[in-house]
Design brief:
Layout: E1 7-9, H1 13-18, H2 20-34, E2 37-39, E3 55-58, H3 61-70, E4 75-78, H4 79-84, E5 97-102, H5 111-123, E6 126-128, H6 151-163, E7 169-172, H7 175-183, E8 187-190, H8 191-196, H9 207-223
Parallel strand pairs: 1-2, 1-3, 3-4, 5-6, 5-7, 7-8
Helix pairs in contact: 6-7
Length: about 220
């Protein structure tokens, strides 16, 4: 347990919209690793609120990238890396089931994140069948185009990307990628759900529902 620093746990907006109880489980796990840790709900895009001299602990690849690359006054730790190295974590055994993977856009410039996700899958006995465009050469699931082009065209991009997956089960580690793979007709398997033995759920009937939920959450946190 590390106690010499001030730690903040940033679950990421998408996780808080998707399954806030998983954020609590991860915070409790982070406290085993680092000692007392406070929740930090502020969106990583809202950098002016970052507290100087703290260490941000996050399970979100996008939060990790933004804090590490753009906010010099904080240290950043990717919580899933710590879990992947934990010999005491009770990893579920998925008995060699084959799954493909949709790498989040934020991980394409982060070889460590790509490696950690694959190490976690190996520790859970999941056989990874990579799509042609994967890892450092991965493709966006379509979500980043939301709000820039009509929603119907975004869904076409999502379906096109989903069709490139060799397996019906697709590992994702961005909550928005859950939506994209579901819209594309695949069975998304969110990495945090896999770690805690939970089903992956697509909350919302379409991409507008999901994105509006994200916007409302971010605005509510910003106004607090």
């Amino acid at each position: 347990m590390e106690n010499s620093k001030k730690y903040l746990f940033a679950p990421g907006c998408a996780l808080m919209v998707y399954k806030p109880h998983l954020a609590i489980k991860l915070k409790e796990l982070a406290e085993i690793y680092f000692g007392k840790i406070d929740m930090y709900y502020t969106c990583c895009m809202d950098k002016e609120k970052v507290v100087d001299g703290v260490t941000i602990v996050t399970p979100c690849a996008t939060c990790f990238k933004l804090y590490a690359d753009k906010v010099s006054q904080v240290d950043t730790l990717f919580l899933l890396e710590k879990i992947a190295e934990d010999e005491n974590f009770d990893f579920p055994d998925y008995q060699g089931i084959s799954m493909s993977i949709q790498d989040t856009c934020a991980a394409r410039t982060q070889p460590m994140v790509l490696s950690v996700i694959r190490k976690l899958l190996k520790r859970m006995n999941i056989n990874l069948v990579e799509p042609l465009r994967s890892g450092l050469e991965g493709k966006c699931c379509g979500q980043t185009f939301y709000g820039k082009i009509p929603a119907a065209k975004v869904e076409v991009l999502m379906k096109k990307r989903a069709d490139e997956m060799p397996c019906n089960d697709v590992v994702v580690y961005c909550a928005s990628c859950i939506m994209s793979m579901a819209v594309g007709g695949k069975h998304p398997r969110y990495i945090l759900d896999l770690l805690f033995g939970e089903p992956t759920l697509f909350i919302g009937k379409n991409i507008d529902n999901w994105n509006q939920s994200l916007i409302r959450y971010k605005q509510r946190v910003k106004n607090q």
